[in-house]
Design goal:
With 55 residues, the protein is an all-alpha fold. 96% of the residues lie in helices and 0% in strands.
Length: 55
């Protein structure tokens, strides 16, 4: 029974580490996507300004 308890504790630790890693990966992916979106928004704004200037 003690072995089962130790295994469950170890699994809890492993799952917590996996969850932290996954959370970090999601945060990183969202940050990268936000940066790309901001860059694209800037490009779109620039193109709109160029379009207005050429009309």
């Amino acid at each position: 029974m003690e072995q089962v308890s130790q295994i469950l504790k170890r699994n809890d630790i492993i799952y917590e580490i996996m969850l932290q890693d996954l959370t970090h990966n999601v945060d990183s992916t969202c940050t990268e996507a936000n940066v790309r979106n901001a860059e694209q928004a800037g490009q779109i704004a620039s193109l709109k300004n160029q379009n207005r200037a050429s009309q």
